[in-house]
Amino acid sequence: MIARFDELNGFSDGFGLEIEQLPATFGRAADVTVQLTNLLVSRYHCEIEVKNNQLVLRDLGSVNGTLLNGERVDEAPLFPGDTLQIGLQSFLVRSIQTSMLEQHHMKTAEDSVEAVTA
Q: Is it the case that residue 20 has pLDDT exceeding 70?
């Protein structure tokens, strides 16, 4: 598990979300990582990725925006305790495994080197 999110506003009682792979996309489309059915959510709303060994939230041009701690953001780092709002659903960033971020960053760098040398 790279990160854990807990839903705050009860759309799905006790809903907890564990991110296992990055990038993780949120939206209403069938091919996103986390599918949300709320009509205020764009088909491809936002994504979470690793940048410089840090978990980063990035809006994907959503109509209603992505809120982090009540502020609309285009891109911002995520930290435990942050609140992420996508449409009507809010999630608490419960935990982030920094060791997993480092492993993900190293694997991505290795894959890039392999692609260049191939």
A: yes
Query: Chain centroid to CA 92: how far?
Result: 12
Q: Are strands 54-59 and 46-51 parallel, antiparallel or unpaired?
A: antiparallel
Q: Which residues contact 38 (CB under 8 A, 6 or more apart)?
A: 11, 28, 86, 87, 88, 89
Largest CA distance in the chain: 49
pTM here is 0.80
Asked if residue 66 lies in contact with residue 84, where contact means CB atoms within 8 angstroms, the answer is yes
- Separation between Cα atoms, residue 115 and residue 35, nearest integer Å: 31
DSSP secondary structure, 30-70, as one string = TTSSEE---TTS-TT-EEEEEETTEEEEEE-S-SS-EEETT
